[in-house]
Design brief:
The structure is a single chain. With 79 residues, the chain is mostly helical. Helix content is 97%, strand content 0%. It is built from one helix and no strands. The radius of gyration is 34 Å and the shape is rod-shaped. It starts with a helix and ends with a helix. The model has no long low-confidence stretch (mean pLDDT 93).
Amino acid sequence: MKMRQSLADWERAFVREVTLDRYRRDSLRRTSEQRAHKREVQRRHKRGSVRFTLLVLTLIMTAVIVTVVMFRTLYLVLG
């Protein structure tokens, strides 16, 4: 009788440990997925900011070049 009780206790403890292990693994997986998603969002935001900055600089440089060429052409035509 004592052997059966201890075996049943071992089985219950094993089942409890397996259940806790599954819960820990699921929790770690969810945490890892959340971190990966957060990093991807940050990367996407950073790339978007860089692209926007490049676009603004390109527009400013285009306006400056057009203005300089326009005034030089005007100087040549009127000069």
